[in-house]
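[step 3/7] inverse_fold.run input=structure_tokens len=314
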């Protein structure tokens, strides 16, 4: 069994992975700014520090030193935050990440980094391969601060590995959803549908996404983390089934037996002027299949049913 240092341990994806690792008998040292998954504290093999990765450099250094592998998930992934607080997004996603990478090199620790499908930006070549070009909007558009921050960290990991000083694994996540998700399109739709409130959709809702259930993502994480073949590699993690936002809304309404109606709003009404959307976001997962044999198993309807059932109990 291993000892992992997990940043963002109380976040949506982080808490699911922490639980999975703990159930397998591993020791997890977690850090996050909030205690939002207190059930993790029931595990004797879990130790938690409630603080920011920006604040206590000596503590972070000690925790990395005392772990075998660093799982760096801490980030700000909500689009609303890109627009309201871009500096903090950059501080957490880029600056703190590079400080953690420095400490990993100092103590000769492996690092697993969760990047994002936002990396590809507005590239219209579908599906996205891991080595495809990036196509972003202007730096005056706040929406792109998250993608740029994650890309900078990817560049830094590659540069450090090129010098022979680091072993990494990078995953780019495509719309992960599941129980305990907050402030994202799937969770918002379910929350409103269960209350029979209107589901608000930007533009005409023709944008498509490939929604990936969190259990499938965690399965991929474990395969990548454990495989020596995946050393210093980047992988897309997602389904290849495209679903429009309007289709998603209709499915949620149907599965939750809701009386909700679909209402269309402009981007400007919801986000203001500093926002651009991505019309299609579809991964190629051929590389991940080749390296690990992984493929997603949970359909969108099956995953949404699980999430709706969970939400009803809250």
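[step 3/7] decode complete -> sequence:
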């Amino acid at each position: 069994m291993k000892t992992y240092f997990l940043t963002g341990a109380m976040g949506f994806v982080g808490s699911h992975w922490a639980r999975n690792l703990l159930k397998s008998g591993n020791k997890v040292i977690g850090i996050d700014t909030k205690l939002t998954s207190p059930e993790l504290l029931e595990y004797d093999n879990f130790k938690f520090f409630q603080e920011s990765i920006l604040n206590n450099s000596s503590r972070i250094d000690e925790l990395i030193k005392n772990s075998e592998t660093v799982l760096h998930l801490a980030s700000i992934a909500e689009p609303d935050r890109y627009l309201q607080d871009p500096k903090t997004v950059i501080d957490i996603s880029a600056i703190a990440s590079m400080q953690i990478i420095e400490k990993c090199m100092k103590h000769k620790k492996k690092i697993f980094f969760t990047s994002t499908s936002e990396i590809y930006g507005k590239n219209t070549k579908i599906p996205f391969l891991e080595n495809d070009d990036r196509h972003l909007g202007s730096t005056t558009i706040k929406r792109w601060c998250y993608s740029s921050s994650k890309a900078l960290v990817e560049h830094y990991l590659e540069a450090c590995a090129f010098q022979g000083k680091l072993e990494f694994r990078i995953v780019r996540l495509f719309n992960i959803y599941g129980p305990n998700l907050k402030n994202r399109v799937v969770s918002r739709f379910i929350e409103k549908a269960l209350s029979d409130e209107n589901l608000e959709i930007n533009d005409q809702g023709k944008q498509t996404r490939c929604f990936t259930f969190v259990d499938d993502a965690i399965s991929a994480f474990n395969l990548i983390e454990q495989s020596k073949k995946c050393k210093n590699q980047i992988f897309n993690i997602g389904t290849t089934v495209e679903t429009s936002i309007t289709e998603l809304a209709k499915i949620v309404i149907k599965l939750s037996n809701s009386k909700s109606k679909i209402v269309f709003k402009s981007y400007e009404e919801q986000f203001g002027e500093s926002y651009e959307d991505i019309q299609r976001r579809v991964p190629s997962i051929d590389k991940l299949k080749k390296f690990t044999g992984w493929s997603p198993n949970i359909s969108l309807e099956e995953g949404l049913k699980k999430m709706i059932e969970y939400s009803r109990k809250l």
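[step 4/7] annotate
The chain has a mean pLDDT of 94.
The two ends are 34 Å apart (CA to CA).
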